[in-house]
Amino acid sequence: xxxxxxxxxxxxxxxxxxxxxxxxxxxxxxxxxxxxxxxxxxxxxxxxxxxxxxxxxxxxxxxxxxxxxxxxxxxxxxxxxxxxxxxxxxxxxxxxxxxxxxxxxxxxxxxxxxxxxxxxxxxxxxxxxxxxxxxxxxxxxxxxxxxxxxxxxxxxxxxxxxxxxxxxxxxxxxxxxxxxxxxxxxxxxxxxxxxxxxxxxxxxxxxxxxxxxxxxxxxxxxxxxxxxxxxxxxxxxxxxxxxxxxxxxxxxxxxxxxxxxxxxxxxxxxxxxx
Length: 274
What we know:
Elements: E1 2-8, E2 31-35, H1 39-43, E3 53-56, H2 64-75, E4 80-86, E5 93-95, E6 102-104, H3 128-131, H4 135-150, E7 155-159, H5 165-172, E8 179-184, H6 185-190, H7 195-201, E9 206-211, H8 222-225, H9 239-248, E10 254-257, H10 264-273
Parallel strand pairs: 1-2, 1-10, 2-3, 3-4, 4-7, 7-8, 8-9, 9-10
Antiparallel strand pairs: 5-6
Helix pairs in contact: 2-4, 7-9
C-alpha cells in the first residue's frame, strides 16, 4: 500500500512545521493529497516537491462550474495523477444542515430532523425537490468531469460521505471506466455502515483510502462532531479487520491519512503493514 498525507493552504491537517511552515515529508510518503477549493489554488501547487499529487476537489453539487474549472486546471499539471471528490446524491438520504446528522429524505418540505427538531428549511436543506441534487444530476456532472480528465490520464476518485454501499455501487454502475472509489473509513464508521461492506461490495472499483478514526456516530451529530479525524487506533474502527479484508482482496493501491501528524503515526503504519 502506498501512503500519502492530506494538506492544504490552511494547513488543516497539520503537516507543516509550526515555526518554519516547512512541509513535513516522512520517509514512507508516496504522494500528497492537496485540498484545492478553486482553480487558482490548483495553479499555485508547488512544483519543487518531488512527489505526485492527488487534488481534493470541491463537491460538484456545491458549484458545478467551480468543480469543472478545478478539473480543467488539473489537466495542465503533470504532477496530478488523480482528483478526489464527493458525490452526495440526496434522493434517499440527506443531511440536516443544522446538526449534521444523516436522515432519510422524505421528499417533504415540512420534514423535521428527528435529532434536533429543526425544520428542513428550503434555504439550506438540499433535498430532491429543493436544489435538484438527485442521483441523475450527480451522475451527469461526474461523467462530464471524468470525460474531461480522461484526456490527461487522470483518475476521478469518488468518495463516500453519508452514502450507503448500495448507493455507491449504483453510482459506479453508471460512471465511466476511469472513475474509481475512495473509501473513507471515518465516514463509513460515522454512518453506522460496516466498512467491510464497502470493501467487498466495491472491491472492483476500490482504488484509494482515506484513513482516520472516530468514536462512531454515537451522539448523532454526523459530519459536525462525529467526524473527529483521530489517528487510526484512537477511535473504535476495527483496523485489524479492515487490514484483513484489504489483504483478502489484494488491495495494493493508495491511501491518504487525514489526521494531524504525530510521530506515533509512524508506528501505526509499521504495525498495519505486518
